[in-house]
Amino acid sequence: MFPSRSTIEKMILEILVELGEKGKIIDIYQRLSKKSSLSESELLEKVPSGENRWKNNVRWARANLINKGLMEKRREYGVWEISQKGISYYQERILKER
User: Fold this and answer.
1) pLDDT recorded at residue 21
2) Per-residue CA distances from 46 to 4, 57, 71, 79 (Å)
3) What's the whole-number mean pLDDT along residues 27-35?
4) Could you give the CA distance from residue 66 to residue 43 in angstroms, rounded to a whole number?
5) Residue 97 pLDDT > 80, yes or no?
6) Do the beta carbons of residue 13 and residue 6 sit within 8 Å?
7) Who's near 44: CB < 8 A, 6+ residues apart?
8) How much is the pTM?
């Protein structure tokens, strides 16, 4: 079962913090796939348009984080970066939930 979008958002922020505030997209997807505990068939599932369902969910989560100001818009091709607001959010909200 796919994690909720808010869970994916939290995982993205956590991974970016672990990677030193930014990381290559391919590395982030690999870490997200491991953290999500999705099966191989779930990771390969397609939406009716033919797009990969997992990657689609991750991209929407990233767009939400950018809209909330928790991630930077693309500064460097192929790299995602957490914003200062995102670091504060992670430290003040996500870490305290554990």
Assistant:
1) 96
2) 17, 11, 27, 24
3) 94
4) 24
5) no
6) no
7) 52
8) 0.92
- Which burial class, exposed, middle or buried, applies to 42 when counting CB atoms under 10 A from its CB (0-12, 13-18, 19+)? middle
The encoded tokens of residue 47 equal 């939406």
Phi and psi at 48, nearest 5°, equal: -55, -30
Based on the number of CB atoms within 10 Å of its own CB, is 64 exposed (0-12), middle (13-18) or buried (19 or more)?
middle
3-8 contact pairs (CB < 8 A, 24+):
3/36, 5/57, 5/60, 5/61, 5/64, 8/32, 8/36, 8/57, 8/58, 8/61
Q: Considering just the CA atoms, what is the radius of gyration of the chain in Å?
A: 13
First-to-final CA distance of the chain: 22
Q: Model confidence over 47-88: pLDDT tens digits?
A: 999 999 999 999 999 999 999 999 999 888 999 999 999 999
* Alpha carbons 5 and 9: distance in angstroms, whole number: 6
